[in-house]
Structure formats: C-alpha cells, structure tokens
Amino acid sequence: MAIAIKDTVIQTEAIIGVKDNLENARSATGGAIQVGRNIHKGDFVDEFMFDEFGQITRRDPNSTAAVTPERLSSLEDVAVKLYFKGDLFVTNTELERYGSSVKSMNKGIGSTIGRNISRWALNKALISVVGAITSQSTLIAGDGTADADVSILNDAVFKLGDQNGDVVAFATPSLVTHKLIGNAIASTADQIAYGAVYNAQVGTLGRKLWTVDNAALGWSDGTNSGNYTLGLVKGAVTIDESEVIKILSDLDIAQENSGYRFKAEGAYTVKVKGFAYNTAQGINPSDSVLADSASWSLIKDIKHGAGVVAKTK
To answer: pTM for this structure?
Structure first.
C-alpha cells in the first residue's frame, strides 16, 4: 500500500483519546479529578484571594468606644505547569506490515499517542495530590502497619471533621480493592447473595471507588512498603491543557530502514485544591520534586484541602 501519514488525522485522533480518557477519570471519581483548558504564558498560574473577613461580633448600642477595624489579608494559590514530549520512530516496513487501511493506520497511531498523553497527565495529577495531602500529617489515617478495610477509610474521611461529606471518591490501587472485596465476602455467610460476588460491590461509605495502579499510590520508608488510598473531594486536582497539543511527523531516510519520526509536545498545568505549589522548588518539576512535601503549602486549613489519605500495608 502507499503510505500516507496524515498529521491532522493523527492529531485529531490523539486529542479525542486524551479527552475521552481524562473525562473517564473525571466521571469515575465523581469530579474529584477535573479537566479543562487554560492556555497561558509562563510556568505557573498565581491566583490571589482575600482570606475570610468581616467577623461578626456583639455590638453594644450604648457604647462610644473606638474600634480597630479588621485588616484584609490575602491568600496565594499557585498551580504548576508541566511540559511533555513523546518521540517515536517507525519504519516504512513496519507500517507496511500494519495490514490495514491508511485511515486505520493513522487513527491507530493517533489513539495510541493520545492514550499515552492522558496517562502521563493523570500520573502527574496523582503524584501532585499525594505530595500535597501527605505534607499534612493530620490528613493521614493509619501508620502503614494494618491492612486496608472500611474502618480505616472511615478514619481517613473524618480527618475532615464536619466536612467529611466533601469526600466524593476513593482512589486506590487494585491490591487494596482486592482486600476490600475480600473483606466484604468474608463478612457474610451468604456469599452468593452478597453484592461483592455479583457486582464486586464493596462498602465505601457511599463514595465512588476508582481503582488505578499507579506508583504514586505506593509508599516505602526503605524498610517497609504499602499503599495509599486517597479520599478526594470534588475538584481535588485539576488538569488543564495549558499548551496546545502538537503532533508532527517527518520522513527520515537517513536510517538503513527509512521511516517516519513522530513528535508530540504540549503542557498541562496541575492545580491541587487548597494547596499552593512552592515556586522555589523550580519550574517544570520532576516526579520526585512533585512528590516532595516541601513542594506544597497548605493555603488555609485542612478542611479546605484536596482530601485525605489512608496509609495501609
């Protein structure tokens, strides 16, 4: 077949794939993960807001005393921009072996690139939200010595006190989901009638359960290791496309086997609710920097943050 690489087809298919995968994550987490588009210059997005003001107190209608007015104070919220690239080379021979139409070939390349971009973006979001939440010890339930169960999930959500209802979803590794299902099955003598057998339903305190295997949801202290389960509030982390996704191709005949080079470029800005990225940690941070508790500062108080963490074996 005659090979015809269509950048526009590949790019369109990739963008559709990115949108669908991120939208699936938004839906699966009940809106805890938000996605959007905010094309902007620079490496950060700074937002300034006034702290709560205008405290209401008792007034003496007979007093002539002078009063000292409250002063306004501001809070700063900082989101960080993360840049990505993807480089691929495929020979003409490999494309010839694709064994399908040119249209299907272009769509296949685009969908694969799109899937990888969305995975990258979700990975950065999870790393960021784990780094932010674990920077506050009061948001962590458990010390990692116990197995996951509904009880520790309950302990985690009540780290938010009377705002515990803000938690809309749990994000957890498959190992933890497996343990929760096992607990549910073991909790009743009538296994066949129980939802854990029919529908893999487990008790999650009325919250959605998003099972995702990601390194960010694992912890290790050098001796012991285990899992994190995130209890996320709505809008816990926002992933904004902040540079237009570009996918380019070029014929390369300098190799023994000629072929096409594909390059994907773009950027996403990640914002964690209730936490500001510490710009002193640098622009375009690596995963280790994003995961560092020093990279995130609580803006106000824990009840206005992204959520909680259950630390288990």
So the answer is: 0.90
